[in-house]
Design goal:
The complex is a heterodimer of chains A (181) and B (141). Chain A has 181 residues and is of the alpha+beta class. Chain A has an 8-stranded antiparallel β-barrel with strand order 1-4-5-7-8-9-10-11. Chain A is built from 2 helices and 11 strands. In chain A, a hairpin with a 3-residue loop joins strand 9 and strand 10. Chain A has one domain: Lipocalin. Chain B has 141 residues and is an all-alpha fold. Chain B has 7 helices and no strands. Classes of the chains: A alpha+beta (181), B mainly alpha (141). The interface between A and B is medium-sized, with 12 and 15 residues.
Chain lengths: 181, 141
């Protein structure tokens, strides 16, 4: 019994300490809820992407342990006009048949002012580029909501031809309600 | 003349509206596309009657101005304008909440021809043929 106490007490203490440490580090996982909006706009065209999914791990107190890995289905684009939708999915623009998804994977999330900044890789049209996205997180009764606005230059991803009627800088507006997993 | 034109315009517009509503219902039930928020019952009926009234004024003006050739010019213009108007549904930007905007022209384009079809169908009732009414025949050529 003495031997048991001698070894087991430190072992149990170590297990508890290690466990509590992991509990502290592990950030909250969130599930994307209905009502999200992934919008884009330029001087000529604008619309939304209807299909959005992914894994969101985020802790307000510990942004360093947070991570986003989200994808958008290119074919779900809706500009409100059938001909524009077809055009946007064509080879000249998003080439939805060859590059069916837009993906963003965060590498680092830090607190920035009243919000946060996520630095990661944005992959569109087969081109991967580092992208910093500012966002805010607001707690709600059911969970929370991420919102962010940032610009993307479509030429960086070889989408469409440079110039033309559609502006080169596209404004992206993101609003994603989440619930705790 | 103007009264009869207006009566024909209103009646043919109403007929076109009723046919359009029936077509919209068939379209919705067969394809599942619901555009009632942008092309509802009131707007379809109002648009059809407006088309009929526009045609009535056009017919009255042309037959007054060109006399014998007025009807031929009117018929040609009515059909050409109906054809030209089908470009609008292809260019329109619908609310982003609506699913499958590519199905919208398929529902609306046929409706653009219904006022002309209704007008041409009902015209003999409002303007009987000179042969049938016993009046003198107005020869165009």
């Amino acid at each position: 019994m003495k031997v048991f106490k001698k070894f087991m007490v430190p072992v149990l203490a170590l297990v508890l300490l290690t466990g509590s440490a992991f509990t502290f580090i592990a950030a909250q996982e969130w599930q994307i809820a209905e009502g999200y909006s992934i919008g884009f706009s330029s001087n000529d065209a604008g619309g939304i992407f209807k299909d959005f999914k992914g894994n969101i791990v985020f802790d307000e107190q510990n942004p360093a342990a947070s991570r986003f890995d989200v994808t958008i289905e290119v074919a779900s684009i809706n500009t409100g006009n059938g001909l524009q939708n077809k055009h946007a999915k064509s080879e000249e623009w998003f080439d939805a048949a060859k590059f069916p998804q837009i993906r963003y994977v965060s590498q680092k999330i830090v607190k920035a002012g009243s919000g946060y900044q996520s630095t990661g890789d944005l992959e569109v049209h087969g081109v991967k580029k580092a992208m910093t996205i500012p966002f805010t997180f607001q707690k709600t009764a059911k969970g929370g909501i991420f919102t962010g606005t940032f610009n993307v230059n479509r030429n960086d991803f070889h989408i469409g031809k440079p110039g033309g009627e559609v502006g080169e800088v596209i404004k992206i507006d993101v609003s994603v309600p989440v619930t705790k997993k | 003349m103007l009264k009869r034109s207006l009566a024909l315009g209103i009646v043919s517009g109403l007929l076109a509206g009723i046919v359009s509503l029936a077509y919209a219902k068939i379209y919705h039930s067969s394809l599942g596309a619901d555009f009632s928020t942008v092309a509802g019952m009131t707007s379809i009926l109002a648009g059809s009657v407006f088309g009929g009234l526009l045609a009535a004024f056009g017919y009255w003006l042309l037959t007054k101005w060109l006399r014998q050739k007025g009807e031929i010019v009117f018929n040609l213009l009515f059909v050409i304008l109906s054809f030209a108007s089908v470009l609008a549904p292809f260019a329109v930007k619908l609310p982003l909440t609506l699913e499958a905007p590519e199905l919208f022209p398929g529902m609306v384009v046929p409706m653009h021809f219904f006022p002309a079809l209704a007008w041409l169908t009902l015209k003999p009732l409002f303007f009987p043929s000179p042969d049938l009414s016993g009046n003198s025949v107005n020869k165009v050529f």
